[in-house]
Structures are given as C-alpha cells and as structure tokens.
C-alpha cells in the first residue's frame, strides 16, 4: 500500500523549518486531483479541503524537518551554526550537509570538530559551539556563492533499505512519514467520508508547532488528528511498548498533552474490530501539532496517530512499512463512519 518511491522523494526533499517549499510542491502535485480546494495560507501551511457536512475534521502532518542555520563564518571559512529543532550533538559528528546559495546552487559540506579534523582523541562529546561545517571553500568563496549568516543548512543522507524491503532508513522520517500517510488517506477519503475535511500539511512544527496553531485557528475544527512519528523503544528494552513492525502508535500522553480519551477508545475499538495492531504511546518527552490544535480557540478534541521509528531526529531514522500501511488503514476506518454518540459526548 505505501508508495515507497513517494516516501523516499519526500525524505530527500530540502525542507527544514521555514524552508518547506520543495516539500509543499511535491505534496500539492500529488493530492490535487483528490480534493475540492487547495490553498497556502500566510504561514505557509498547505491546506487541502474536502467539502462535506459537519462535524469539521482537521488532519495534520508537518512538512518541516530539523536542520541548521549559519551563525557566522570565520576567517578560515569554517561555518559556525545554530540548530533548528531538537538535534543531539552526537548525531552531528561527520554529518554531511547541504546549503542553498545564489541561483539555487547547492553547496555540500561536512560537520567536524577541531579534534576530529586533526586526529586527536575525543574524550568527551564536544559542545555545540565546538562544531563547524567544512566546505573546502574560503570565506571569500563562500560569500561569492551567497553563503552567509542566516543561510539554512539541511542534513543529508542516502535512503536505504535494511534487512528487507519493508524497513526503510534515512533522513526526515519525522515527519515525511506522516506526510506520506496523509497523502494516502486523502486519495481514499473522498469515497468514504461525507464530513467537512481539512487536510493540513503544516510548517515549523520543529520550531514550536506554529503552523498547526495558525491553521487550526482559521479552520475551527470540531475534532482533529495529528499524524506524527514517535520514538521506538525496542532496541534494548526487554518489555518494549513501541516496536517497529508491530503496529500503529496512538498517544495517551506525551510531554505536553493527554490524547483525547474518547477518540483513543474509538481507535482501539476499530483496531480490534479490523485486526489493526495498535501500540499505545506514553512518553515524557516530545510533543506534536496536536497540542496547538487542542489549545485553539475554546479547545479542540485531538489525539496523535502515527508510527514508531528508531533514531528519531537523525539522518538514519528507521521505519517499518507495515506500520505505515496499518496507520493508513486505521485512519480510513476512523473517517469512514465516525460514531456520532462518542463525538457528541466528547464535544459537550
């Protein structure tokens, strides 16, 4: 079911927070035949509208990925940077990067440290300000190419399959996986849902959930789903609760919100009836667009549906396509026949 070529195309696209244009263009072309209207709001969110009857449903997945931004360039041409989004310093060592200069010319570089560059022993993890980007160019050459303070820097990595064709490894799984799931839902939704549906591909989630905040305010949904990934805990844990290949994740609690209990119970019921495996996510770290939607106006019942991935916020994220397929199936069933009584109860 999952279109792996489309997923990989989305993963490879340049689209850090604030620079989602390429991702948005890919998605817009893909979904145009399946919705009644497509708009891009002032924040940069891509909003696809399927006309229907109340209640109004909002489904969101964020387009942006983590990255870097040039803070300064020293006299030797070394590029100092600031992070965009939550990136662990450990994942930066030896990382390849890409910057867009004048006339959209792409310049490659690698992240290094003085110790690594000069072959010294690294006894402890370097601090953020000890890393720099080496492009092999001088300061003057970088300036001529248009690389300066404020230039955005994307992390790059080749996509590969591991073990079997069902396990994909690469960059930007957070949240291009969610985008690919939402695209598949859109392609099927018009035939099965009579509701007023707003499918929103949001911007700047990694910076502060901003796109979901502005779009939810305008849409005024009656209830909502955010599609996003979560950290798998199956690498070493004996009693893992979120294992890749073992099912869809539904958020009970994350760092900033409690998933709507009525929607979650409904999803669990669907999962049992349709034999779609579900893993409940209880976490003390990280949050999603669902928080911004939930806090919009007078409050919107919302939860998070997604898939577990290993090595989140790195360029070697790992996801299982069975989970992606099951997530699409669960959401289609969710929108096919929402039980009115449950939502009447949740909206009182």
Structure description:
This protein has 348 residues and is an alpha+beta fold. It folds into two domains: 4-65 and 171-346, 3-Layer(aba) Sandwich (Aminopeptidase); 67-155, Elongation Factor Tu (Ef-tu), domain 3, CATH 2.40.30. It has eleven helices and 17 strands. The chain has helices at 4-12, 21-31, 114-117, 139-145, 173-192, 205-208, 210-219, 261-274, 289-294, 321-336, 340-346, and strands at residues 37-40, 46-50, 53-62, 67-73, 79-84, 96-100, 106-113, 131-134, 152-155, 160-161, 167-170, 195-202, 223-231, 248-253, 278-282, 302-309, 317-320. The strands form three sheets. An eight-stranded mixed β-sheet has the order 1-2-12-3-13-16-14-15, with helices on both faces. Strands 5-4-9-6-7-8 form a six-stranded antiparallel β-sheet. Strands 10-11-17 form a three-stranded antiparallel β-sheet. Strand 1 and strand 2 (46-50) form a beta hairpin. Helix 5 (173-192) runs parallel beside helix 10. It is globular and about 65 Å long.
Order of helices and strands: HHEEEEEEEHEHEEEHEHHEEHEHEEHH
**Range of strand content:** 25-35%
Q: Output the strand order for the largest sheet.
A: 1-2-12-3-13-16-14-15
Number of strands: 17
On the 0-100 scale, what is the average pLDDT?
92
């Amino acid at each position: 079911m999952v279109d792996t070529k489309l997923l990989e195309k989305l993963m490879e696209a340049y689209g850090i927070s604030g620079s989602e244009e390429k991702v948005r263009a890919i998605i817009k072309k893909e979904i145009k035949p399946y919705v009644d209207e497509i708009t891009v709001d002032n924040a940069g969110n891509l909003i696809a509208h399927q006309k229907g009857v109340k209640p109004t449903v909002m489904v969101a997945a964020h387009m942006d990925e983590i990255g870097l931004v040039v803070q300064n360039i020293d006299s030797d041409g070394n590029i100092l940077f600031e992070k965009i989004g939550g990136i662990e310093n450990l994942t930066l060592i030896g990382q390849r990067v890409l910057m867009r200069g004048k006339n959209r010319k792409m310049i490659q570089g690698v992240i290094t440290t003085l110790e690594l560059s000069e072959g010294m022993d690294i006894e402890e993890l370097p601090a953020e300000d000890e890393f720099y980007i080496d492009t092999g160019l001088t300061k003057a050459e970088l300036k001529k190419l248009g690389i300066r303070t404020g230039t955005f820097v994307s992390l790059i990595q080749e996509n590969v399959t591991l073990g079997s064709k069902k396990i994909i490894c690469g960059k930007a799984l957070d949240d291009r996986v969610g985008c690919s799931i939402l695209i598949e839902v859109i392609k099927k939704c018009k035939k099965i849902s009579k509701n007023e549906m707003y499918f929103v591909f949001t911007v700047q989630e990694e910076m502060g959930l901003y796109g979901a905040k502005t779009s939810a305010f305008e849409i005024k949904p009656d209830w909502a789903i955010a599609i996003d990934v979560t950290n798998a805990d199956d690498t070493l844990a004996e009693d893992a609760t979120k294992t890749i290949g073992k099912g869809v994740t539904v958020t009970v609690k994350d760092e900033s919100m409690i998933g709507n209990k009525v929607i979650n119970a409904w999803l669990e019921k669907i999962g049992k009836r349709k034999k779609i495996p579900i893993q409940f996510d209880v976490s003390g770290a990280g949050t999603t667009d669902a928080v911004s939607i939930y806090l919009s106006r007078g409050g919107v019942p919302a939860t998070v549906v997604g898939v577990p991935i290993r090595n989140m916020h790195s360029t070697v994220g790992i996801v299982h396509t069975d989970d992606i397929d099951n997530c699409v199936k669960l959401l289609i069933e969710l929108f096919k026949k929402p039980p009115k009584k449950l939502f009447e109860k949740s909206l009182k």
